[in-house]
Design a protein that fits this description.
The chain has 215 residues and is of the alpha+beta class. It folds into 2 domains: 93 residues, Substrate Binding Domain Of Dnak, Chain:A, Domain 2; 100 residues, no CATH class. The protein has 5 helices and 7 strands, in the order H-H-H-H-E-E-E-E-E-H-E-E. Strands 2, 3, 4, 6 and 7 form a 5-stranded antiparallel β-sheet that branches. Strands 1-5 form a two-stranded antiparallel sheet. Helix 1 runs antiparallel to helix 2. The longest helix is centred in the middle third of the chain and has 24 residues. The protein is elongated and about 85 Å long. It starts with a helix and ends with a strand. One of its GO terms (cellular component) is plasma membrane.
Length: 215
Amino acid sequence: RFQQVQSMMYDLMEWRSQLLSGTLPKDELKELKQKVTSKIDYGNKILELDLIVRDEDGNILDPDQTSVISLFHAHEEATNKITERIKEETSKDQPDYGSYSRMSSSPTHSLYVFVRNFVCRIGEDAELFMSLYDPQKLTVISENYLVRWGSRGFPKEIDMLNNLKVVFTDLGNKDLSRDKIYLVCQIVRVGRMDLKDSNSKKYTQGLRRPFGVAG
């Protein structure tokens, strides 16, 4: 029984990370919620806890707004589903429930990045685009994190000073198995067409020009 509960807890932890990632389509999200509630009900049953009745979407039925007959039918249906589930679980071979093997198969991972400073003599405002890059496949494997940097050497939003943080989410085991992953920063200068242009007649503002890259 301990191994059964341990396995279910690992499954719930993995599914929870998927739900919190916010990357699932609506239909997959609904299906995953139903799997979560089904797993919880099954765990309550084998632990001899109270049975929770739910609607089709997995929401707990409110006894104050649901008739007694409807609650009875819901209890009866839930009991039958859980009984069938227990028969299926006991009839098949149980896999290895080692904690390491279960946790290592988690489908999602995250990378936390804290930008402390940006040192580069540009002379104008800049936009920094940070992303994860696979050098072997020559492809970007994440979305860009944008930081607007001022010409005076501080973030444009001064209240973000020492608070430039980002979490790259939804990284799978396939990403962890890559030989190398680079954190690439693309620098875009925002201002004049040419830094040497000091003539007021030719002076322009707001032009975005590629300036550099770092990894």
